[in-house]
Amino acid sequence: MKLEICNDKIELGKKAVQKAANIIRNRIKEHGVAHIILATGASQFETLKNLTKEPGIEWSKVVMFHLDEYVGISDQHPASFRKYLKERFVDEAGPLKKVFFIHGDAQDPAKECSRMNEIIMGYPIDVALVGIGENGHLAFNDPPADFDTKDPFIVVKLDEACRRQQMGEGWFADLSDVPEEAISMSIHQILQSREIICSVPDRRKAEAVKNCLEGTITNLHPASVLQKHDRCTVYLDKESASLLADSV
To answer: I need a labelling partner for 67 at 20 to 30 A (CA). Which of 45, 73, 196, 207 fits?
Structure first.
């Protein structure tokens, strides 16, 4: 794992995207296609905005997966991650080769996981763009996260800290509106990505960043598992890095 501290979230977004874009362009050049995973949430605004503006990416040769989706929410709900990615990425980048969305409103979430599991087995991931939650979660793998399952997608329970973060970011009007379950890409599947780019801005993430990047690897701080990935780069701004021992 490599760590880079940026001056602010704008610089963070630009640097994260520069690296991601280079990976995507190179994979297309070498293999004719690139397979990517995109995260959502407020922390990804700058990253996705910049990614769609990157020159020289043949988006028609890119296959996209996303990390997670709330159970029971349609793609028209304001908090839907499908809606988020369609509006902020897919519609801006132009037609992609393929887009695989998790259907959170599927009648049977377990069957939806099985469907996604079968699909992603055929697409080794070149780069995953992820973030870290205020509770240290990676995707929607809240603590204590399942570090053992090999299933690519799983149904997870959302803890109160996670649900309060979603409300605090303005996606829901009240805590009672936030779903208690989600379909999430598993920790194991995220770690199978050839490269991982983790973008984490804002002071509210500082404690989670310290726990996950300076502490021991534990499912109580799920994103700490990124320490094990040799080709993971974590981009912080000065606010999110403020509690690190070697922050500048």
So the answer is: 207
